[in-house]
Amino acid sequence: MSILVIAEHDNSSLKQATLNVVAAAKAIGGDIDVLVAGENCGAVGEAAAKAEGVSKVLVADNAVYGHFLGENLGELVAEVGKDYSHILAAAGTTGKDFMPRVAALLDVAQVSDIMRVESEDTFVRPIYAGNAMATVKSSDSIKVITVRPTAFDPVAGEGGSATVESLDVVKDAGLSQFINEEMAQSDRPDLASAGIVVSGGRGMQNGENFKMLEQIADLLGAAVGASRAAVDAGFVPNDMQVGQTGKIVAPQLYIAVGISGAIQHWAGMSESKVIVAINKDEEAPIFQVADYGLVADLFEAVPQLEEELKKVL
Amino acid sequence: MKVLVAVKRVIDYNVKVRVKPDNTGVDLANVKMAMNPFCEIAVEEAVRLKEKGVASEIVVVSIGPKACQEQIRTALALGADRGIHIETDEEVQSLEAAKLLKSVVEKEEPKLVILGKQSIDSDNNQTGQMLAALTGMGQGTFASEVVVEGEKVNVTREVDGGLMTVALKLPAVVTTDLRLNEPRYASLPNIMKAKKKPLDSMTPADLGVELAPRLSTLKVEAPASRQAGVKVADVAELVDKLKNEAKVI
Questions:
Q1: Residue B141 and residue A97: Cβ atoms within 8 Å?
Q2: Residues A157 and A47 occupy one common structural domain
Q3: For a tag site, which of A14, A78, A203, A205 has the least CB within 10 Å?
Q4: Set of chain A residues whose Cβ sits within 8 Å of the Cβ of B118
C-alpha cells in the first residue's frame, strides 16, 4: 500500500495537524509520501521530510496553489494521488474544501473525519454530531479520507530523513481567484491543538468580558474558545467557535465558562481529557459530563480563579 | 438568473439521537424530522437574492423518500418557486447525491447552486464540493457572505484562522455556513400558497443515475459515555483538584 498525505501549512511552516495525519497513515500501514502544495513553500517541504515515518516529500511550488484554492488543489491531488491506495488530509477547512473534489474527480467516495483506523479499508467516524460512531468499510480502489487530527497522537516532527522531490505539475482550473483574507491575530496557541482551552459562552454577556478568560488563558498557556451563542452574539470572531460546525478540540483540560453544553457544542469538545464547567445554573447539561463542576457566578469565580492560579503556577 | 437549492430531510437538530440496540444505525422511527439547518440557510440566501432582483427563479431539489416533499414544501413556503423531488427509498451517499444533482444541473442550467455545508446527520461535508467537481464549476464553501457581481460571485468563506474571500466564475456552487444569514419563518398564507406551487417527482433511473454505494456501514455504536464528575465547593478546591488530582495544570 502507498499512502499520500496532503500537508497542511501556511506556506512557511508545517502545521502540527499534518503530523497527526501521518500518524493515521502509519496506522493504515504502507509507504507514506507527503505532498506539499503551496507558493514559496520550500521550508515546509524540508520540515515534512523530518517527520517520522515519511519516505518521500513531493513539493508542488507554484503561485496557483498559494491560497489553497479547492479547485486547483483538487485537480493536483487527483492527478498525483491516482497511483496511491490512500489519500489523506486533515479535516480542517482546507482539507474539507478540496478533498471531496479529489474524490469526485477520481469517482470514489470520501470517508470524512475518521477517528480510528480498523484496517486498510475500514474506519470509525462520528455521525449525528458525535452522538454515534459509525464503522464504515470502503469498497473503492482509492480511499480518499479526511482525518480528525485530535483523534491521533502526532508522529515526531524530527528525526525523519525523507527525500524531497519537486513536482512541476501545474493545475490551474481557472474557476476561482483569491481576493483577500482577514486572519484573526493571536499570540496564544492554536485552538485546535492547544493543550488547554478556556471557552466562554453566552454567559460572558459581551466581548469585553472575554478579557477575563484571556488572562486565565495567558496564565495557563491556553487557547481561548467560544460557543456558537457567543460567536453569534458577536462577542468573539467565528474562528474561535468550538462545536459540530466549528473546531473540534481534544485538549488535556477544557474549561467551559458560562456554556450550557448543547449537543452541538459537546460535539466539539467531548474528547477532552478533563472538563471543567463553571456555570451558575446547576441544571446546565454541561454538569452531566464535567469532571469538575463549579456552580457559581462566573463574574466572581473567574477573577478568583485567576488569583488562585497565580498562587500555584 | 436561476438558482438551484438542494435541501435534505434530517432528524431535528434538537433531538438526542439513540443508537439502535442491534447497532445497525440510529433509531429514526417516530423521531421529529426537519429541514437540515444549513439547507434552510441556503434557501434563505436564494430568497434574498431574488428579493434583491439578482435571482429570477428558485428551484429547490431534494433526494429521498416520499416524505422529503414536506421539506420541499417548506422551501416553497419560504419563497422558492418550484420543487423537484428525486424519489428513492435507498440510502443515497454524497457521491451519488452529487451525481443526481449534476443531472438536475444539466437540465435546469442554474447560474448558482446553493447547498448547506454539511448535513447534521451524516456530517460528511462533501456533496457541494463533489457537485462542483463533477460539473466543472468553482466552489465557494463555508460561505458567510455571497455577493453576485455580473458574471462573478464573491464568496467570503469561514476558514481556520479567519475569513477568506474568493471570486468565482458563474455558474458556481456555494455551500452555506451558519453565519450566512438568519432564516425566516414561513407565514401561514405562504404555507397555503406553497401547496399550489409545482413539484415534479422523478427517480434516479429517470436521471440515468444508478445508485451504487461505495461505503458500507458495518455498525453504529454509542460513543463512550462520560459520567458526571464531582461538584467542587469553591475556586480554591477546583484549582487544588486540577493541580493535585487531575494533574493537568
A1: yes
A2: yes
A3: A205
A4: 245
- Choose among A94, A97, A131: nearest Cβ to B223: A131
Geometric angle at alpha carbon B141, from B125 and A61, rounded to 5°: 105
Query: Is A74 one of the annotated binding-site residues?
Result: no
Shared domain check, A233 and A87: no
**Using CA of residue B120, residue B114, residue A88, residue A14, what is the dihedral sign?**
negative
To the nearest whole Å, the CA of A243 is away from the closest chain B CA by 12
Tell me A153's DSSP state: P
Extended strands (E) in chain A:
2-6, 31-38, 56-61, 86-90, 110-114, 116-119, 122-127, 132-138, 143-147, 163-166, 176-183, 196-200, 223-226, 253-257, 274-279, 292-295
CATH number given to B2-224: 3.40.50.620
A11 with A135, same domain?
A: yes
Report which secondary-structure segment, H or E, holds A92.
none
DSSP H stretches of helix in chain A: 16-28, 42-49, 70-81, 93-105, 210-220, 228-232, 263-269, 298-312
**Residue A136 DSSP class:** E
Tens-place pLDDT, residues A134-172 = 999 999 999 999 999 999 999 999 999 999 999 999 999
Domain span holding position A274: 196-311
CA proximity to B122, closest of A272, A109, A273: A109
Tell me: the pLDDT tens digits for A110-141? 999 999 999 999 999 999 999 999 999 999 99
Joined grid coordinates for residue B223: 460513543
**What backbone phi and psi angles, to 5 degrees, belong to A10?**
-120, 30
The CATH number given to whatever domain includes residue A227 is 3.40.50.1220
Helix, strand, coil in percent for chain B, rounding step 5: 30, 30, 40
Interface contact B162-A182, CB threshold 8 A: yes
A265 is in an annotated binding site: yes
ipTM, two decimals, is: 0.95
A295: β partners: A279
- pTM for the model stands at 0.95
Whether A202 has a binding-site annotation, put simply, is: yes
The CATH number of the domain where A11 resides is what? 3.40.50.620
State the nearest Cα–Cα gap between B194 and chain A, in angstroms.
30
Please say whether the beta carbons of A244 and A130 come within 8 A.
Answer: yes
Nearest chain B CA: its distance from A132 CA (Å):
5
Residue A190 lies inside a defined structural domain of this protein: no
Give the whole-angstrom CA distance, residue A92 versus residue A97: 8
Q: Are residues A198 and A222 in contact, defined by beta-carbon separation less than 8 angstroms?
A: yes
Q: How many CB pairs under 8 A join A and B?
A: 266
* Mean pLDDT within B36-50: 98
A125 annotated to bind ligand: no
**pLDDT tens for residues A261-313?**
999 999 999 999 999 999 999 999 999 999 999 999 999 999 999 999 999 98
